[in-house]
Amino acid sequence: MLDKKSSARIDDGFRASAAFLVALADKYETASFMDGDPSQFLRRYSQPRDQELAAFVVSQLSFGQREQFIAKLDAMFASADCGKPKTGGASFADWLASGGYKKFFPKSQKKFYRFFSYADMADLCGRLARIVEEYGSLGAAVRARYGLANDCGNAKNGGAAKNEGAAARYGLEKPCGVGGPSLPQELRLVAALISLFAGVKCVSQNPKGACKKLHMFLRWMVRRGSPVDLGLWDWASAADLLIPLDTHVLQESARLGLIAPNAATSAKTAIDLTQKMAAAFPGDPARADYALFGLGVDGELRQNDPLIKKF
Fold this sequence. Notes:
Layout: H1 4-28, H2 48-61, H3 66-81, H4 92-97, H5 101-104, E1 111-113, E2 116-117, H6 118-135, H7 138-150, H8 158-169, H9 188-195, H10 212-222, H11 247-255, H12 267-280, H13 288-297, H14 306-309
Antiparallel strand pairs: 1-2
Helix pairs in contact: 1-13, 2-10, 7-8, 7-9, 11-13
């Protein structure tokens, strides 16, 4: 058992680390964060339905060299907008619903970006169109599936059977099939999202994996009051988000002693890190993503930044 002096030192150390992380989040969570970041596309459209659909496609292509995938996204959105203004005229949802994406993404095995083919992207867009046709929006679909995932095994839930029937008509996997009642609560939201994209190559299929791109998308949709994140899904809580594990976040978390140096890139690591960050960011642990990612990107500036040198 720790004596009072040892406990005080640990408490002081934690408070200093928490203050450091909050200061970093304040430093990096600004509108300028979107410069050169995939989040630059979040406000390309003015309507929430367009924003969430566009953001989902953006999130699934956000890996590898930024310059390369941003160029691919620019080309796709130029096709979707068809010369219409980014706000007021263009509608990404209409581009999907009308099948306009098929012209830009023909059923070809030629690679569009990295290991995703044009056919893979057409499958992704087609699934999004079907989801919106059934539910009205991607957010409404995830909300319905999230409720169903949380009610798995509850025989009294009459709405579950109705939603399962709708899912079957559109080839959407039941959330109960993605981990079922045994799935940790921390993974139910991402599992509900995954359940809408069963068999779609561009979307991670295992909620127990790191699912970095999906957790980044959920951060965009759920966190409110941010100059970056959209906060469109007011039915979801920021407290239920997990920190997306990219290379910078993993490296800085290990360097700061928040995770083990050899921690796996997995949901377990994301859960462990997020739980620790909940103490520094009560009710909003995913905000630590800005602190850790920003610190990683600005790593070469540590020697010159007084905020970083202090710690």
